[in-house]
Amino acid sequence: MEYQIGQVVYAKSGHDKGDVLLIVSVEGDYVHLADGKRRKLEKPKRKKKIHIQPTSYIEEELAEALQKNSYVLDAEVAKALKKYQKKQ
After folding, report:
1. Model-level pTM?
2. Rounded to whole angstroms, how far apart are CA atoms 41 and 34?
3. What is the spatial distance between Cα 25 and Cα 29, in angstroms, rounded to a whole number?
4. Bridge-partner residues for 30, per DSSP?
5. Sequence-distant (≥ 6) Cβ neighbours of residue 56 within 8 angstroms
6. Cβ atoms 6, 60 nearer than 8 A
7. 4-46, pLDDT tens digit by residue?
8. What's residue 83's pLDDT?
9. Phi and psi at residue 29, in whole multiples of 5°?
10. Longest C-alpha distance within the chain, in Å?
11. Rounded CA gap, 53 and 69, in Å?
């Protein structure tokens, strides 16, 4: 599966196991993840792709803003993840 910026994923291992996170960048075998609360956009979690479970949900507005290097608030990330969790 191809990982994309703005995609919602679940952490499969580590202290954040089971957490819902958003991909903020993709770098080789690694992705950088943020949740807007514990993991802020200024210091995203670097995690190997094999340690996350991808979903088919992509937050289009945030993905566009992150790709353009626009200013994105941590609250926007948290709100998007909360919206995703309510759909489940």
Report:
1. 0.94
2. 6
3. 11
4. 27, 48
5. none
6. yes
7. 999 999 999 999 999 999 999 999 999 999 999 999 999 999 9
8. 93
9. -85, 0
10. 31
11. 25
